[in-house]
Amino acid sequence: MSDEDDFGIGGLYENGRWLWDERQKRIVFLSNLRPKVDEFDLYYTQPSGVMEFREDVDIIEQLRYRRYFQRKLEPGQADVIRLQDIKDLVIYTAPVNFLSAKLINMLHTPTGERFLRALILYCGYSIQIEDAMRERDLELEKKVRTPDSDILEEEYRDNLGDLRILVAKEYCTILTGAGDMKPFHHMGPLKKRRSLIEKDARSFETFIRMCVQIVYLSLGRRYFNQIELETHRLLKSEAFNAVGHKSQGRDPKKGHIQEVLLGKCLRHDRQLKLHSPLMNEVFCTRQIDYRLKGLGVVKYPNLTTRLRYLRLAVAGPEEQMATESVIIGIIGMPRARFDTMLRILPTLTPEQKSKSTVLMSRSKQVSSVTKSCTTKQSLHMRTYPDIIIPPKESVEIAAPKGFSEDPDDINPVNEVQRRLWQSRFKMMMNLLTQRRKPRR
User: Fold this and answer.
1) 12 and 113 housed in the same domain
2) One domain, residues 184 and 259
3) Residues with Cβ < 8 Å from 62, sequence gap 6 or more?
4) 331 in the same domain as 354
5) Are 360 and 324 in a shared domain?
6) What was the pLDDT predicted at 91?
7) How many domains does the chain have?
8) Which of 23, 107, 187, 316 could cross-link to 191 by cystine, CB 3.0-4.6 Å?
9) Residue 73, C-beta contacts closer than 8 angstroms, at least 6 positions apart
10) Can you give the residue range of the structural domain that contains 15?
11) Is the pLDDT of residue 245 over 70?
12) 333 and 358, same structural domain?
């Protein structure tokens, strides 16, 4: 074996850096320090089929993120977690080779934000109902089923169907390139270009992966597999759902649980007429309040308590969520309860604090054990309370003779953060092109 094989090109040997000189045929000493890690290496990874986000961000990187990239509070603004904070963290930890200027702009549009908030609300409520149905299934092994069970499960089914409508109406806007989504249509704003199928499919998969990560952080970094499965099931037909094919047989659901979670609008047609489950919700024949399909876009007078709740959850300001008891994961919660990476900080009750102080006075070993136990307990606690959607009113509302043409108050998008991420992305891509240039 040659010296080059032993030490490598620029390898480490006895705490130093050595380089094999081809002309002199000998090893040359360079430095006794390790090579400096460039900032670009922390963000760029070689292109691969899986989009992996960085979870092990060290303290220095967190300080850099807080100083340069974290959203700054405006005067008089409440210090609560916004959807923008979660988007910032996801873009910061995403590999640069998967990002694009189009994707960053797409996430910073009113339609994109309404889609993300509706998806967060639906996934959180769907996971909550699935857990409740599993508990009810265990209870039914010892109890007798009553007619009230059918009424409760029908309420769950209607709530999930209405939340899917909120996701579907924004998804239709994205697919058709309507409104503020015109620049992002795969055939151009005028829809006259040639459709680049491979490029469009790659952009679609990247967008779904970003949405999954945003929902995952919004729900307290829990239920990643369930969020990924449900998001792919909603947005894709069964033939193109590769994630669903891989997970078949892992966690089978019983018949009545599946009926509640999937709803009544799931259709099994021939391949040519097959739609994704979200499109099936739009064209479903079940009784739907017509105002759900324009909530947050069209200004409707005299909204019911249920519709006001859903409108605030999808398109309302985040500061009002805590006062109105609207829950969308960690959005709307005080930012002081979370660290830089949006992990909840451990909190102790007065009784636990008194116990911990007594234990700390006894010995350091006991205090370290109790500290680790309280940290584990805080990780397993629910980050946010349960989602309680107001019930439907008994009065049926028919479609009016004429629809309102007044637009609703649009929640403004943070343009400062959008320009910040665009400039960072351009800087990273310039570094990438410089590294790929051949040296003379």
Assistant:
1) no
2) yes
3) 340, 341
4) no
5) no
6) 96
7) 3
8) 187
9) 79
10) 3-36
11) no
12) no
Task: Identify the burial level of 349 via C-beta atoms within 10 angstroms of its C-beta, where 0-12 means exposed, 13-18 middle and 19 or more buried.
Answer: exposed
Please give the single-letter amino acid code of residue 149. S
Exposure of 424 in the CB half-sphere (CA atoms within 13 A): 24
Over residues 337-386, the pLDDT tens digits come to: 999 999 998 875 555 445 545 444 443 443 343 333 433 333 344 678 88
- Do residues 284 and 292 touch, judged by C-beta distance below 8 A? no
Residue 49 domain-assigned (yes or no)? no
In a shared domain, residues 89 and 146: yes
Residue 153: Cβ within 10 Å count: 18
Q: Does the structure show a pLDDT above 80 at 274?
A: no
Residues 98 and 125 in one domain: yes
The confidence score (pLDDT) of residue 367 equals 38
User: From the CB of residue 86, how many other CB atoms can be counted at a distance below 10 Å?
Assistant: 22
**How do residues 83-130 score in pLDDT, each as one tens digit?**
999 999 999 999 988 899 999 999 999 999 999 999 999 999 999 999
Residue 174 shares a structural domain with residue 306: yes
- In this prediction the pTM is 0.81
Q: Are 411 and 316 in contact (CB under 8 A)?
A: yes
